[in-house]
Design a protein that fits this description.
Elements (H helix, E strand, L loop, with lengths): L1 E4 L1 H11 L1 H17 L10 E5 L2 E9 L3 E9 L13 E7 L5 E6 L1 H19 L6 E5 L5 H12 L3 E5 L3 H11 L5 E4 L3 H5 L4 E4 L6 E5 L9 E4 L8 E3 L8 E4 L2 H7 L12 E2 H5 L13 E4 L4 H15 L6 E3 L12 H5 L7
Parallel strand pairs: 1-6, 7-8, 7-10, 8-9, 10-12, 11-13, 12-16, 14-15, 14-16
Antiparallel strand pairs: 1-17, 2-3, 3-4, 4-5, 5-6
């Protein structure tokens, strides 16, 4: 039998445990897996691009457990009544190939993305950071705010979005949770005085959300909106102002902000920082840039965390997902046993 977490059980589990606690605990799983980065199979995600968006498979394995996520990205979906991103994920036992865990991952991906941002900021942002600018207040924004409070204690937010209703939604959701939120008049207004800048926009275009003149010394930039070819948020000049940290370089060169840069543009993979193989922030004035596109190992960590968290809880059911005849060589027997004689 395969354990299965459907949407309602995911909602019940997240509501009972609390998103901020979930992301704080998930950061520990992410750090554990990033520290053993070299033990994983790694490949850039398999993507199918259309004019409407992208559908992707994100696989990895640590040679004990295999995991993958199916995820889409369709920026025009909200105007048609659909979500921009939806997902589901699977874990399987590599010893027999059987799936052991299946779950919705639309909500889980939102928390995983924010937890990854929090993990990286904990290592790269200035420890005294207290103000975060947020450019883009769509579906990911509240999760980012909670993850940064969990990781760095940030509770002052300066937000900007071209959609005023999205900013109102964000304030409605997040202000009651103890945040101090200022609605800015522009992106430039939002980043003024910020210690951390998060860019999280959905348009599948080479946008320029931030320009070099807006970036002050010591800022940590959490650039998470660029996640496919032809989709960026930062002016290329910003990338030369500080050190750029990435998840998996071959994928980020295709999908991230650095797709704008020459193939030999220098970047640091974040797992190297956690393992002491590369330095992180070197001074209070240094600008650090996390060019995040999302990588399969992060989904693997989130799936492991959810699997362990729901163990012994009522938030899953067992489903009969794999045909399992008594005689492994007699699969036909399963359909023949109830077939009318001679048919």
């Amino acid at each position: 039998m395969t354990r299965f977490v459907d949407v309602q059980n995911m909602i019940r589990w997240a509501a009972e445990r609390g998103p901020e606690r979930i992301m704080s605990e998930m950061i520990c799983y992410l750090e554990d897996d990033f520290r053993r980065w070299e033990s994983f199979d790694k490949t850039a995600r398999v993507a199918s691009h259309t004019p409407f968006g992208v559908i992707e498979l994100m696989p990895t394995s640590d040679h004990e457990t295999y995991g993958f996520k199916y995820v889409n990205g369709h920026p025009a979906n909200p105007a048609r009544g659909f979500q921009t991103v939806t997902a589901f994920g699977v874990l399987a036992d590599v010893h027999n190939g059987y799936p052991t865990f299946l779950t919705e991952m639309t909500l889980l991906t939102a928390m995983r993305t924010a937890a990854t941002s929090g993990m990286v900021a904990k290592a790269l942002a200035r420890p005294d950071s207290s103000v975060m600018a947020m450019i883009g207040t769509g579906s990911q924004a509240e999760f980012q705010a909670l993850a940064f409070r969990a990781a760095l204690g940030i509770d002052r937010l300066q937000i900007w979005d071209t959609d005023y209703a999205a900013m109102e939604k964000f304030v409605r959701n997040i202000a009651p949770l103890g945040f101090h939120v200022t609605i800015a008049s522009s992106a430039a207004d939002a980043v003024r005085g910020a210690d951390v800048i998060t860019t999280c926009t959905a348009d599948k275009v080479n946008a320029t959300i931030l320009t070099p003149d807006l970036i002050g010394p010591g800022v940590h930039i959490n650039a998470i909106g660029g996640d496919c070819p032809g989709k960026t948020e930062l002016h290329a000049g910003i990338l030369t102002m500080g050190r750029v940290f990435v998840e998996y370089t071959p994928q980020t060169r295709i999908e991230g902000e650095i797709q704008q840069m020459p193939a030999d543009f220098s970047v640091t993979e974040f797992w190297e920082v956690l393992n002491g193989r590369a330095s992180g922030r070197s001074s209070a004035d240094q600008i650090t840039i996390f060019d995040s596109v999302g990588f399969a190992i992060e989904d693997f960590s989130a799936l492991r965390y959810l699997r362990d968290s729901i163990d012994g809880s009522p938030y899953f059911e067992n489903i009969d997902l794999v045909a399992n005849p008594d005689d492994p060589k007699d699969l036909f027997g399963l359909v023949n046993v109830l077939s009318p004689l001679g048919s």
